[in-house]
TrEMBL record:
Amino acids binding Zn(2+): C409, C412, C433
UniProt-listed SMART domains: BRCT (SM00292), LIGANc (SM00532)
Active site: K116 (n6-amp-lysine intermediate)
Binding residues annotated for NAD(+), in chain numbering: D34, A35, D36, Y37, D38, S83, L84, E114, R137, E174, K291, K315
Listed Pfam families: BRCT, DNA_ligase_aden, DNA_ligase_ZBD, HHH_2, OB_DNA_ligase
Top-rank EC class of the record's enzyme: ligase
Entry keywords, A to Z: DNA damage, DNA repair, DNA replication, Ligase, Magnesium, Manganese, Metal-binding, NAD, Zinc
GO function terms (MF aspect): DNA ligase (NAD+) activity
Family indicated by similarity: Belongs to the NAD-dependent DNA ligase family. LigA subfamily.
E.C. number(s) listed in UniProt: 6.5.1.2
Species per Swiss-Prot/TrEMBL record: Lysobacter cavernae
Protein name (database record): DNA ligase
Length: 782
């Protein structure tokens, strides 16, 4: 057969086999019998063996597995593979929905829902439509390269179907072992004397970690796509559910149990529906997953720690076992959260031996009344995280004492604190605690913070572990010699050979580049500096608002927390977090060190004139959150006493004379009896006076053209990115939201605008095209 005919036949065979895989794994509609599939694959194998120059990486023949590599290379995820928060009750789901409604406005948000498969999370990278790399989730930031093993799974397309996919596309999903296939595999293993798999999840995870891909090819693995990661050279639809449909068109299996529902009732109804059919599903699940369907809404909700605020896993009840607590310890996490946990006698729970279990927080310990030596019931929450469920009191040993949270951090010795209304205790060391150091440095150096290019996780680990950097300020005293010495010590520790250049000289360009990047970052904006400090609850938008309204780092770092509430969208929780951070001497010292080492805020300016309208005693008294002091009562006090000091010093009967009811006056007096409260009132009053003295008088010029208006962006803009458009609209006073509601002032719609445009038209909200947006910006921007 001529070469051209052979090449044509090979292409035909590949297309037939991939079509068969698509119909079997994606459409669940087999087109040809297994025998015919095997015949076509044999013919392809024979033709490629005789013509090896025609073999391509995406050929179905290459799924059978390559030779063992001996190890798995690390893969850094461009976008982290985040974990999900868990809900175990309807009430927890209701809280999740309520927070979304409060943040985005409106009610009955739309959610994409799907079963939570009990398998192994992976990320698949496609370039030009071709599968080039696959990795496990790992720790969320870095996984293992299991590309060769993933190629053996027929459900994973080696070449995307259809058209319109981005140049680079990362698809996230779950590799799992179907229950029927798991059972058949174990039955065959018993007959043949092979190894029996413990359970489908372990079977899937173990299969992907086989060093020999030919072993993986023998395991009955399947795959479902549930989302996307990094995207370059293209765009996806506006919603998660539409993206899943697009992925299905491109050849990825998507769970047929996926659906779209509205509001809390829709979520709980889906949970019960899936729960009722759980035993009949062809795969193991440990719950269901709820995701806010709208991508822009997801962006606006953001993240907490390493989990999104816009998604949650609603878990099914888990297996339980009994064991004995040997000790109760605490762990300080990378973000400073202190979590109690128990060390216990080993016990089998859900097929896994566990010796440690979480107690979540101090309130949970108190509620359960867990003590050293107690017999407890342990479950694997969601079949993943072991947790203590309850104590068996009749087995409690004599003399067992109640447990209480330590007063100081076991890592740095700083005080442990808990904000009012929060369950979590935190180490107050923040910028100075060794447990939080690496997280703090990584955040400080990130692109949207100080933007220290080249300071990746590996260098942060080594600089911290070897003692070169003990706080973020130490970055600015690093020298070229320090970095080279650090690299040499790290290589010696790890047993690796230093990189060399011509002539055997150790490479130094990486160190020179890093020093240059650190030097460049010394000049920054107030917004970036505040965000870089990693203050709890202070994200980019809050940092931007603080910088805009107060304008001066020295002013901000000396303000008592009630004054921060003068900034729109800064409530009590955020204000107290700011105040607590700035009350810590260690954190203030780090700021001093940063400034002493050449970090300069370049955009210092006077406070915004808009502050002046609320710089009065009555507003301050309300912001102090004094029991029973409403706006009306605060106005009465401000009229009678004029200053914070006189309110503080006046006897209770004078407060009554000023118009306060007797019970309100008593509440105020009781509040002032606490020395910390009296001091806070005094310091806040003094700060109010200083702020009033330096804040410019308001004027018409201080008003921005979009003050009080809410904009929503949808679709693709040709002349500027959505991020650029958002920044420019915010600079003119607008709030840019992620979803359309009755509060929306106008919608900017680009090409391929989706459901947001439809909703705006339905609600009668003005819609701008890109030309209108650009014309408005040209007219109103300075």
């Amino acid at each position: 057969m001529p070469k051209t005919n052979i090449a044509t036949r090979i292409a035909e065979l590949r297309q037939q086999l991939e079509d068969a895989n698509y119909r079997y794994h994606v459409l669940d509609d087999p087109a040809i019998p297994d025998a015919d599939y095997d015949r076509l694959l044999r013919e392809l194998d024979e033709l490629e063996a005789a013509n090896p120059e025609l073999i391509t990486p995406d050929s179905p023949s290459q799924r059978v597995g390559a030779v063992p590599t001996g190890s798995f290379a690390p893969v850094r995820h461009v976008i982290p593979m985040l974990s999900l928060g868990n809900a175990f009750s309807d009430e927890e789901v209701a809280v999740f929905v309520r927070k979304i409604e409060e943040k985005l406005g409106g009610d009955q948000p739309t959610f994409s829902v799907e079963p939570k498969l009990d398998g192994l999370a992976i990320s698949l990278r496609y370039e030009g439509g071709r599968f080039v790399q696959g990795a496990t989730r790992g720790d969320g930031a870095t996984g293992e390269d299991v590309t060769a093993n993933l190629r053996t799974i027929k459900a994973i397309p080696l070449q995307l179907r259809g058209k319109g996919w981005p140049q680079v596309l990362e698809v996230r999903g779950e590799v799992y072992m179907p229950l029927a296939a798991f059972k058949a595999y174990n039955e065959r293993a018993l007959v043949e004397g092979g190894k029996v798999l413990a359970n489908p999840r372990n079977g899937a995870a173990g299969s992907l970690r086989q060093l020999d891909p030919r072993m993986t090819a023998q395991r009955p693995l399947a795959f479902y796509a549930y989302g996307v990661g990094a995207i370059e050279g293209g765009e996806l639809p506006d919603t998660h559910s539409q993206t899943l449909k697009r992925l299905r068109d491109w050849g990825f299996p998507v769970s047929g149990e996926s659906d779209v529902v509205e509001g809390l009732d829709g979520l709980l109804g889906y949970y019960r529906t899936i729960g009722a059919k759980r035993e009949r599903l062809p795969f193991d699940i440990d719950g269901v997953v709820y995701k806010l369907d709208d991508y822009e809404g997801q962006v606006e909700m953001g993240f907490v720690s390493r989990a999104p605020r816009w998604a949650i896993a609603h878990k099914f009840p888990a297996q339980e076992q009994m064991t004995v607590v040997e000790s109760i310890e605490v762990n300080v996490g990378r973000t400073g959260a202190v979590t109690p946990w128990v060390l216990m006698q080993p016990v089998q729970v859900g097929g896994v031996t566990v010796t440690r279990a979480t107690l979540h927080n101090a309130d949970q310990v108190a509620r359960l009344d867990v003590r050293n030596g107690d017999t407890v019931i342990v479950r694997r929450a969601g079949d993943v995280i072991p947790e203590v469920v309850r104590v068996v009191p009749e087995h409690r040993p004599p003399g067992a004492k109640p447990w209480s949270m330590p007063s100081h951090c076991p890592v740095c010795g700083s005080e442990l604190v808990r904000e009012e209304g929060e369950a979590v205790w935190r180490c107050s060391g923040e910028l100075t605690c060794a447990a939080q150091r690496k997280e703090a440095i990584g955040h400080f150096a990130s692109r949207r913070a100080m933007d220290i290019e080249g300071l990746g996780e590996r260098y942060i680990e080594v600089l911290s572990d070897l003692g070169y950097v003990t706080s973020v300020a130490d970055l600015y005293k690093l020298s070229l010699d320090d970095l080279l010495e650090m690299k040499r010590r790290a290589d010696e520790r790890d047993g690796t050979t230093p990189e060399t250049v011509k002539g055997g000289k150790v490479a130094t360009r990486w160190a020179e580049n890093l020093i240059e990047s650190i030097d460049r970052s010394r000049s920054t904006t107030l917004e970036r500096f505040l965000y870089a400090l990693g203050i709890q609850h202070v994200g980019e938008s809050t940092a931007k608002a603080l910088a805009s309204w107060f304008g001066d780092l020295e002013l901000i770092r000396r303000l008592p927390w009630p004054l921060f509430k003068r900034v729109p969208d800064v409530g009590g929780e955020v204000a107290r977090a700011l105040g607590h951070f700035l009350d810590q001497p260690g954190n203030q010292q780090v700021i001093d060190d940063l400034l002493a080492r050449g970090v300069t805020v370049t955009d210092t300016h006077a406070p915004s004139p808009k502050l002046r309208q609320d710089l009065n005693l009555a507003t301050l008294l309300v912001d102090l959150e004094i029991p029973k002091i409403t706006r009306i009562r605060a106005d009465q006090l401000a009229t009678a006493f004029r200053t914070a000091a006189t309110v503080r010093d006046a006897p209770e009967h004078n407060h009554v004379t000023a118009g306060l009811p007797a019970d309100t006056a008593r509440a105020l007096a009781a509040w002032l009896d606490d020395g910390d409260n009296a001091r806070l009132l005094t310091e806040s009053g003094e700060a109010l006076a200083r702020l009033d003295a330096i804040t410019p008088a308001g004027s018409a010029a201080a008003q921005m053209p979009l003050d009080g208006q809410t904009a929503v962006l949808t679709g693709t803009l040709a002349a500027l990115s959505r991020d650029d458009a958002k920044v420019r609209l915010e600079a003119l006073g607008a709030k840019v939201a992620g979803s359309v509601s009755k509060k929306t002032s106008f919608v900017v719609a680009g090409e391929s605008a989706g459901s947001k445009l439809d909703k705006a038209q339905e609600l009668g909200i003005p819609v701008w095209d890109e030309a209108q947006l650009l014309a408005f910006l040209a007219e109103h921007e300075p």
